[in-house]
Structures are given as C-alpha cells and as structure tokens.
Amino acid sequence: MFRKIISIGIILLLISSILMCYRGRERIGEAVRPKETYQLIDPIRIDDDEEIEGLAFKEGWEGDGTSERPFLIEGYEINGEGHGYGIFIGNTTAHFIIRENLVHGARDNEQEFFQNTGIYIYNSKNGIIEKNSIIDCETNGIWIRESERNTISNNILSKNTIGLRIDGNNNSLEANHASENSIGILLNGPYNKIIRNNVIDSVRGISITGPTNNIIVDNIFTNSKRSGLFLLHSDENIIENNTSSNNGRSGFYIRDSHNNSVRDNQVFGNARNGIHIFESVNNTVVNNNISRNVPYGIYLRSTINNTIKRNTILNNAQRGMFLTRSYDNSIFHNKLINNPNHAWDDGDNYWDGGDPEEEGKGGNYWSDYQGNDRGDGIGNISYNISGDGNRDNYPWVDVNMMEKMFEEDVYTHSPIHDHLWLIPIILFVIVFTTLFVPYLRQKKRRFQ
C-alpha cells in the first residue's frame, strides 16, 4: 500500500512538471473559424444595465447578468453600414459575453458613441468578447473605451482601420488574430495584458502611446509596413517572449519611454533595425535573439543609462549595434556574431562590467576577436569599438564560460507564470493528505 501511494505521488508530480513545461512553451493560438450560419439582425445598442436586462428578456438571451450566468449575445450577423456600429454596450456592470458573431461594414456615423466601430464597449466592466469576426469597419474593429476588467480573446479582426483599440485599464487581450488593419492593436490605457495575439500584414503591428505598466507577452508581430511594436511616452512595461519579424521598419521602436523591460524576444528580418531605442532612459534589453535586420541589430540614439545584456546579435546587415549621442549605457554579456561590423559608438558608454578577477562581470563575446585567452575565459587585449575610442576592456573569449559564470543573471521568470511553481507542491499536499495520512491512521489503529 505504501509503495502504491508513493508511486501515485511521483506520477502526479511528473504530470505537473510536464504541464509546467508545456505552459512555458505556449505560443499563439490558431485563429477561430467563423460560424457557417448566423442570424441576421440590426445593430444592438445598450446604454445601461436596465436596457441589457430588458433586451435579454425580449430576445431570450441566456443568463441573468451575474458572474455565474452572464448574458450571452451569440450567433448574430450584423451589418453596421449606415449605423456606425454593430454592437454598442455602455454604462453597464452586468456580466455579459459577446460570442461568435459576425460584425462588418460599420461606417457612415462618426458621432461620439457610434464612431464606425464593430463592437464598442464604453464605461463598462465584466465583459467577455470572444470568437467574433469583425471585418471592414471604417474606424475600429473592437473599441474598449473607459472600461476595465474585460477579456477580449480569440477574435478575428481584419481590414479595419484599427483592429483592436483599448482606452481603458486592467483589460486582457488574448489570442486574437488581427490582419490587414492599419494598426493591429492600439493601446492607450495602463495595466492591460496583451498575450498570445497574432498581428500580421498591418501598417503598424501594435502601437502603445502613453500608458504604463502593461504586459506584452507571447505575441507575434509580422509583415507590418512600419514597426512591429511601437512604444511612445510609455513606461514600466514588460515586453517579453514576442516575435517581431519581417516588418518594413523596426521590430521594436521605443521612443521617449523609460524603465521598460524587453526580454526573451525574437527580433529578425526587419528592414529598419531590430530594436531601435530613441530618447529613452533606464530600459533593460536582455536575452533577446536579434538577427538578419537591416541595417542594425540594436540602434540606440540619444539614450542614457540603458542596460543591454545577454543578447545574441548576429548576421545583421551592417552592424550588430549602433550607438549615437548616447551615454552611460551598460553593454555586457552579449554575443555578437557574424555582423560585418559588430559595434559603432560615438558616445561614452560602458562596454564591460569590470574585471572578473576583481568580481566584475567581464564584457561581451565578439566573433572576430583577435586576442588570446588569458586563462580565465577573458581576452588578453581589449576589443576596440568603432566610432570614438570606446572599448571592451574584458572581452570574453570562451562564450561558455561567460554564460556559466553568470548563470544567476539569466532571467527565466515570466510574470504570466508567477505561480506555476506551486503546482507540484499543491499536488504533493493533496496526495499526502488524501492517501498517505489515512494510510498512517489505519496503520496506527492496527497497533492499538
């Protein structure tokens, strides 16, 4: 019996570990296919809780507006042409779900609470907008305005001026598919989560102007005519584990934005720099793969006190890194490989973290370094940076030693997965209390 309990516990712990690994690799969800048939109706307009209750009763919608039984608006086709909207819900606190509707053609009405928008949520909370198709609306596909605690997930947004617009806080955008919009996602509010969205073939992928403290994780921004991600006047955001590729300008363009964390992203094949940071302070760019960008992998212009470390910067068209009018930036533990010119700097920046023999961090790994190992993985001569006399005084010769020596500096935590480490502990407690404790009690009774 005891061996059986232990075996069950081990199996559950293994299962939990596999689930944790899978969750960490979770990427973009597939676009949801539209329904084959819809009920064609006129646009839906709701201005307060009383109206949503009355319309739900009239139309026979499921639910009662509670969190357990939200009102369900489902299965409609709505042509917004001439009305300027498809579905409008304003000034509500009732819980509702807008699911599997086809909304298209919202135009010809630019009044404030119409705005040529497919689905328009104003001053409302507790909404779920999922698995809808919003196509060919003159201004916005979905607009969340002055609203909070709404979830927008698994929607198709195509051929709108703005696919998905958020002017509120504490909303969650998950696994939406935005294509052929002028702007895929426009974010103007703080404390939102933008997770696992796929934004392709837009003029600009995602544009964040002004808000702070947003989480942008596990998204794909590709084939935009301009930048994949555009950040302006926006501070303290987490930009992590995204892919920004094959865009007409920068993969990430960050301007006048401070204290942002840019980590674990894949940035490649962009036509105007991989990561471009301009007039920005105190950002960290850590553990990104930056390759095949034109002309530079990382471009810092008029920046101060940013940290660039543990990035792999390779095969960019002209230079791996280009710094101009930039000062007091710290650049170390990066791997610069097979760039025609690895780095250019006309400012005064720190290209190493001091001598490891004196508890420093060393510098960077340069694939064209000409010196020799002095015996501890550090080169015996400095590496000169083109531009204005900057140098890496402690270049790494042995890249494996660089990575091993400072493994504690590697960032492996994601804010989205904060509590996954608790799963094995919880399962162990469950196994112990439900199986092992009764076993001990039974064994104790036998001895009484």
Q: Describe it for me?
A:
- This protein is of the alpha/beta class and 448 residues long.
- It folds into 2 domains: 2-25 and 418-447, no CATH class; 39-351, Single-stranded right-handed beta-helix, Pectin lyase-like (Pectate Lyase C-like).
- The strands form 4 sheets. The chain has a 14-stranded parallel beta sheet with strand order 1-4-7-10-13-16-19-22-25-28-31-34-37-40, with no helix packed on it.
- Helix 1 packs antiparallel against helix 4 (422-447).
- The longest helix is centred in the last third of the chain and has 26 residues, at 422-447.
- The chain starts with a helix and ends with a helix.
- Residues 12-27 and 411-421 have low confidence and may be disordered.
Main beta sheet:
14 strands, parallel
> What shape does the CA trace take?
elongated
- Output the CATH class name of the largest domain: Mainly Beta
Strand order of the largest sheet: 1-4-7-10-13-16-19-22-25-28-31-34-37-40
Known CATH architecture of the largest domain: 3 Solenoid
Task: Provide mean pLDDT, rounded.
Answer: 89
Q: What is the CA–CA distance across the termini?
A: 20 Å
CATH superfamily (homologous) name of the largest domain = Single-stranded right-handed beta-helix, Pectin lyase-like
Low-confidence stretches: 12-27, 411-421
CATH third-tier fold name of the largest domain: Pectate Lyase C-like
Count the DSSP helices. Answer: 4
DSSP strand count:
43
Features:
single chain, alpha/beta, Pectate Lyase C-like, 2 domains, 14-stranded parallel beta sheet
